[in-house]
Inverse folding.
């Protein structure tokens, strides 16, 4: 008969091995993420749907959220987004007044300055296998070139917290609200 404490230790070892393996996959996946897989679509500002602007008072930023038009037409509330969906988050600095405080427009929203600060792209592709199922990420500079020092660990870990919402934050909510 096997000693139950030894058996429990073996199970713990197997569990720890699984955690280490999962962490290794996450780190390897994050290292492979980026513009090699996820392209910045040409003309996205004109062609994509700007479905939401988000004021980030904590960062004095306005984030403009875009979705590919094909995905927008096919997406259903509560369902995984269609293969090939591209979501873009475009950062703009907020206008700051002489007093150092952010300025607000007549609509009560932060006033976004026109230069783009960062462009973040996420795309789903059934052929990919990542820590976040089929989603991958890229970070671009305002001129459209890939950010050379980009790290995607934060993308994977933050979006992993929304696994039940197909790894998305604002678009899942947008679809739900649109359906109501």
């Amino acid at each position: 008969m096997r000693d139950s404490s030894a058996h429990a230790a073996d199970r713990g070892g197997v569990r720890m091995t699984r955690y280490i393996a999962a962490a290794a996959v996450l780190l390897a996946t994050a290292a492979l993420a980026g513009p090699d897989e996820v392209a910045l679509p040409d003309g996205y500002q004109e062609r994509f749907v700007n479905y939401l602007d988000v004021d980030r008072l904590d960062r004095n930023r306005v984030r403009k959220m875009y979705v590919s038009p094909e995905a927008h037409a096919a997406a259903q509330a509560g369902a995984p987004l269609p293969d090939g969906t591209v979501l873009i988050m475009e950062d703009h600095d907020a206008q700051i007044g002489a007093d150092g405080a952010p300025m607000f427009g007549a609509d009560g929203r932060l006033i976004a300055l026109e230069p783009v600060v960062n462009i973040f792209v996420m795309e789903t592709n059934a052929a990919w296998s990542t820590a976040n199922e089929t989603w991958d990420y890229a970070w671009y500079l305002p001129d459209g070139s890939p950010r050379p020092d980009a790290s995607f660990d934060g993308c994977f870990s933050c979006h992993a917290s929304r696994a039940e919402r197909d790894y998305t934050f604002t678009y899942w909510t947008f679809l739900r609200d649109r359906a109501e």
Remarks:
- The radius of gyration is 20 Å.
- The CA atoms of residues 55 and 107 lie 12 Å apart.
- Helices lie at 4-32, 44-47, 69-74, 153-160, 170-179.
- The chain has one domain: 33-179.
